[in-house]
Design goal:
Blueprint: E1 9-12, E2 15-17, E3 20-23, E4 32-33, E5 36-37, H1 45-58, E6 62-64, H2 73-82, E7 91-96, H3 109-123, E8 128-133, H4 145-157, E9 161-167, E10 171-173, E11 184-185, H5 186-196, E12 200-204, E13 223-225, H6 226-232, E14 236-240, H7 269-286, H8 290-304, E15 309-313, H9 317-325, H10 333-353, H11 359-362
Parallel strand pairs: 3-6, 3-15, 6-7, 7-8, 8-9, 9-12, 10-11, 12-14, 14-15
Antiparallel strand pairs: 1-2, 4-5, 10-13
Helix pairs in contact: 1-2, 1-9, 2-3, 7-10
């Protein structure tokens, strides 16, 4: 039984999509970008393509990838799937900016053109439905911003890119004071939205993400939820990392060792231990398997982000089937209250230990400093 019963959600005007999209980072396998792990564990290519086909059969319409995912490997595997399904049945979203090559800035015109054309070749398609800017570092004093804007406009005019997206931190500082480097400036982000006119804002969110207090007034260190920001500007949202890079599956214990090139290697033993303790109430109520816990986490994200396309990663057809078929039956209101309380307790414990809840909440500045390299791509 598929999750096709779920109401569609708006991605771009005229594009109403399945709310659970396919995140293609894990199938890219291990990778290193700018000296840092930027990939996943080794993957069986044939199983990965079967998983993509399974996702399509389950009703997925949004497939998200990036040139940095396995340094093109994720895109090539997705291309093998796309060759077997009607192009009009899927929306392809990809990201640019994480993989800079030898250029001085990822958003120089030559780099943008070459990365987009390479992505199209990897995918075997003529156009990308959404191209997302991975970060907003346009060089010192935005030296390359106008060049990037003109290049992206040209790519849209050529039909190589249909619309643009932009990544945002989960939280945006309302005040101009840099109270918390984990948050970007809402003023800065508003300026960039005006410059590039994106139709999609991409942000990470999981049950480990701290939620803004309802009705809280912005003080000196006020903040705005990225979802509220998107609603105010009439922009759609896409959510990445709904499983917090994997710990919420319950499969990663404190002693888990991740291989070279696996972005999850940054997960510390204290974080994994705290998550393991926090999952115990959910195991007792809903079941102890990874599929049981994934079901709960995806239900949580879909409910908390009612306007968003949520991207769930996978490496096998079995994981795909569990992701989609686990959405039926839906959780009861009592179940949702239990889940909310369990995850709130887990977030509180992580906050008390001083451990970052995920790479996104640990450090994703909206405006990287001059000369800093583009950040590695996020899990989808």
């Amino acid at each position: 039984m598929s999750a096709s019963h779920l109401p569609r959600r708006r991605l771009v005007a005229g594009w109403d999509e399945h709310p659970l999209g396919a995140g293609c980072r894990p199938i890219g396998g291990p990778a290193t970008n700018l000296g840092r792990a930027a990939g996943w564990a080794a993957v069986d290519d044939a199983r990965a393509v079967d998983a993509l086909l399974q996702a399509h059969a389950e009703g997925a319409t949004v497939f998200d990838t990036a040139d940095a995912f396995g340094l093109g490997h994720s895109q090539r595997l997705l291309g093998r799937m796309l060759a077997q399904v009607p192009r009009a049945s899927v929306r392809i979203t990809s990201t640019v900016g994480a993989f800079r090559g030898t250029g001085v800035n990822a958003y120089r015109s030559l780099n943008l053109h070459s990365q987009v054309e390479q992505s199209l070749e990897n995918l075997g398609v003529e156009s990308l439905d959404v191209l997302t800017l991975h970060h907003v570092d346009f060089g010192p004093r935005d030296e390359f911003l106008q060049e990037a804007r003109e290049t992206l406009e040209a790519l849209r005019d050529l039909g190589r890119v249909k619309t643009l997206g932009i990544r945002a931190p989960h939280r945006l500082a309302v005040s101009v004071r840099p109270c918390d480097r984990r948050r970007g400036s809402a003023t800065r982000f508003t300026f960039l939205v005006q410059q590039f006119d994106p139709k999609v804002i991409v942000t990470s969110f999981s049950p480990l993400s701290q939620l803004p207090a309802p009705g809280r007034e912005a003080g000196d260190c006020g903040e705005e939820d990225a979802f509220d920001f998107a609603r105010r500007h009439g922009v759609a949202t896409v959510v990445t990392e709904p499983l917090g890079l994997g710990p919420l599956t319950g499969e990663h214990r404190p002693g888990t060792v991740f291989g070279p090139g696996d972005v999850r290697s940054h997960l510390t033993a204290p974080v994994l231990a705290a998550v393991e303790r926090g999952l115990q109430p959910l195991r007792k109520r809903f079941g102890s398997t990874a599929h049981d816990l994934v079901r709960v986490a995806l239900h949580y994200c879909l409910r908390r982000c009612p306007d968003s396309i949520v991207l769930a990663g996978f490496t096998s057809p079995q994981q795909v089937a569990a992701n989609y078929q686990g959405l039926r039956p839906e959780l009861s209101e009592a179940d949702h209250e239990f889940v909310d309380a369990a995850f709130a307790a887990l977030r509180a414990e992580l906050e008390e230990t001083g451990q970052p809840r995920s790479k996104e909440t640990a450090s994703v500045p909206c405006t990287p400093g001059a000369g800093r390299p583009a950040q590695e791509a996020e899990e989808r």
